[in-house]
Amino acid sequence: MAPSKNLTLLLTATALVAAGYILSGGIGRGAEPLSAGPWEPVERAGGEPDAGVGLTGSSDEDSSRVVLAELASESEVPAGAGSGSGTTVIYPLEVELTLLLRGTVEVPDDVMPIGADATAGLQGSLVGDNGNPAPGIVEFIYGPNTGRKIQAGAQGRFGASDLLQGASIVKVTAPGGKVAVREVVLAQLSMTELHISFASVASVAGTITDGAGEPLEAAEVRSDGRVVYTDPDGVFRLGAVPAGKVLVTVRKPGYATTRRAVGVGFRQRVQPADFKIALGEAATLEVGLARSLGSIAPGYAILTPTAGSGGAAVPGGGFPWYEVNPVEIPRGGRGVVTGLPLGAVAVRVFKDGALAIPPSKNVRLKTGAANVVIIDLEPAPAVRGVVLDGGEPVKNARVTVEAADRTTASSKILGQRSPRTFLEVVMPPIPGAFQALRTDSRGRFEFSPHPAALTAYYVTATTKDGTRSGVGVVKQGTKEVTVSLQDAEVLTGEVEVNLPGRFQGLPVEVRIQGAPEGEQVLGAGAELILGDLERGTWRVTASWRGVQVVPGTVLEVGEERARVRGSLPSGAIQGQTAEERLRVRGS
What we know:
Layout: H1 3-23, E1 39-44, E2 66-71, E3 93-102, E4 120-127, E5 136-142, E6 149-152, E7 157-163, E8 166-174, E9 178-186, E10 191-197, E11 201-209, E12 220-223, E13 226-229, E14 235-242, E15 244-251, E16 258-264, E17 269-270, E18 276-278, E19 282-289, E20 299-305, E21 327-329, E22 334-341, E23 343-350, E24 354-357, E25 361-365, E26 371-379, E27 383-389, E28 392-393, E29 398-403, H2 406-413, E30 434-438, E31 444-447, E32 457-462, E33 468-474, E34 480-484, E35 486-487, E36 492-498, E37 506-512, E38 515-522, E39 528-534, E40 536-544, E41 547-557, E42 562-565, H3 570-574, H4 578-585
Parallel strand pairs: 3-37, 4-10, 11-17, 11-18, 19-26, 27-34, 36-42
Antiparallel strand pairs: 1-2, 3-40, 4-7, 5-6, 5-8, 8-9, 11-14, 12-13, 12-15, 15-16, 19-22, 20-21, 20-23, 23-25, 24-26, 27-28, 27-31, 29-30, 29-32, 32-33, 33-35, 36-39, 37-38, 40-41
């Protein structure tokens, strides 16, 4: 695909994402100013830019200008720096690479690139029970990124910058079976921090009562993957709890499941008298379909508390709706949910080949009564697809159907005015915006674009063994789609970052898609080579102590090495004084 076409698509996608970001109340970080040193900026203008240099999107009148940093004539090389990897520079150059568009996906001119709205980030660190950085896994178990896993390296650092926005529940696992479950809120164009230490622990004790304040014995209490039960006094105790905002979920037959979040500090002891949870009466809800329409696959219902039902939807309190959503409605049967809180609930039903009438129905849940909702259906247009490999149908292929702008599509399907709702309630992937399907014996599948979404869809098919894959694009009004498979091997390329003027080593920290690649010292005279990058359109950003070095350059990574040039501030070249190095390093 031509770079100019990519740039047009990406600028459009960026504008849409920025609009969502403003609605989400995102924030930015300012740059830290540097004091002047004996380095003089030299501006070189004229001539054509080097081949392979990407588009910077600069608003300068002369876009071919390159600003370099060169050693002033009266400056001297700092003693002990040498010409190799030794260095007096103590602060690292921070380099971030983000994949904007995979090179294997042909995107129509008027369609947003797949994943363009996945601009939220999560980064942090993991410390084991011995106090040392530890490897581990951060897994999204509830929320729009359900199923996504992020690996923490040997230094305990992890990160990702291509996540969908929204409140999410993550499970952090460290060596030795250590587990912590936390809620994180991800916003577009923002990076959320999560730091878990299994050495910095606390203890949490609480008291579980009924609505009248009487203690409840044998109530089940879950937290951080552990289960304990209350004693005759209604007291539970959890030891060795990682400090932070701890989630506690309580269940007992006849009572509504209740979740609370409690913030605890290192070595803090939360006492039973200070942490009390009162359980209310429970209700049961049955959801059925008035008639059988659409595909033979089951339908699904999403339950949300309606306005005026208290703080049930507020993060940290109320009922854990994410644990029951979506509710499966078997063909010819009903979906049954127990342990629900009393009050009004909105029910939305989704089924391929059919639409719910009305789109949403409210029901007030009562105890001791039969709470039943029957949803009527009407036929809906469906997109029929087939997966082929060499012209032959592929049975049992994995198929995912994803809206081009998944965040906006999800909010419109749920009748929300803006995606901000997803920052307040942990919601599952919304049918109509994202689905996972399988092909039948003839390689066929079927899905219904939701009429409220008003978006194109990407259909990705993969063989059972994962060796063959393909992508199709379904624009609005399309009735059929064919996905042809090819070798799933990912082709890679390289990016070279040219940093002129250096005479000594430069510490560098690289993040690819938000994942830390570890720190290295780039030797004097060496170029920074970033390899094993999936071919496609990437954005390269670099900064040193908040000063922009590479200004979000967009470039194509392909068979030929892509190149980008950066302008280092004086401190990143000359280094820091012995006094500052001693102060920062503490030695």
